[in-house]
Predict the 3D structure of the following.
Amino acid sequence: MSHLRAVPSGPTNPSCDSSSASPRSGSASSVRVEAPGKVNLFLSVGAPGPDGYHPLTTVFQAVRLIETVTARRQSAQDHGTVTLTLEEPDADVPTDASNLAVQAAMLLAEATGVGEGVDLLLRKRVPVAGGMAGGSADAAAALVACNALWGTGLPLPELSALAARLGADVPFPLTGATAVGSGRGDLVTPIMTRGSYHWVFALAEDGLSTPAVFRRFDELTGAGQPAMRDVPEALTAALRAGDARALADSLDNDLQAAALDLRPELAEVIAVAEDAGALRAIVSGSGPTIAALVEDPGSAQRVSRALKASGLVAGVLRADAPVSGARVVG
Ligand code: C5P
């Protein structure tokens, strides 16, 4: 249990009072950190273990949809709490202790013995519950921001170990770029890639629950659960060559059938994107976001237009990839 208290809704304009800093504290009164969302280029899922988690082999790519967490030193009266304020208050995101960014701050405080607390301000750009690890990016950003604000200075391997306790997808946005994930997806090994890739993301009105998609995967595969596959050589070769067409041929997501079973209309979204010239469109992670890989910015524009005109999607975002992991920007 952390000795910090989560306070549901943060003050609208938290004050910065560096006089309340503990002796080990960093010198800044606020630290701003950016962390990226992700798409899974490859996702092979095995049979669940006794803890309910599924072993994975995946390839993550960090995309330029960027979450921003600003960690601010607290005024004396808030001292010892963790508050979270949303930059856009209508975002459908909790601000209490169920928010992964709040949990991240509390976990880091507990692990390092910090007692001073923090006010977090969150700007969201990754779709909520969209299969793009936006909440995980928030947690990764909060870890890095508080680590700097509090002057705790944990190195990346230790932050990654804390991140894995928060959720399987939290370590990757610390590293960013392109990486193989194994274990629950939390053991991250960067891989070499060349070039830039262009994505169009089709957003759904309502999110999908990750556990529900994994459950449907289990139901669909039943006793005949497929053996986990290694990352195909063709995929790593395409990434090394910077060859988007070859990468498109290798994109593969074991959770796609489960997500389409829960949301059959997503198959139409994939068809619209591919008919408009996407090299390939797939479900992103556990969905319901559809990720369309396109050749160039011109094609991105055509695919975006077609998706918007289809009336099937709640929104469309464009992003290039890969981008770096969580980093201090101010
Ligand atoms: O780790 P995280 O809290 O993000 O996972 C959310 C849920 O997704 C888990 O409770 C589990 O149901 C499912 N999951 C899984 N296997 C994984 C990752 C997530 O079954 N490797």
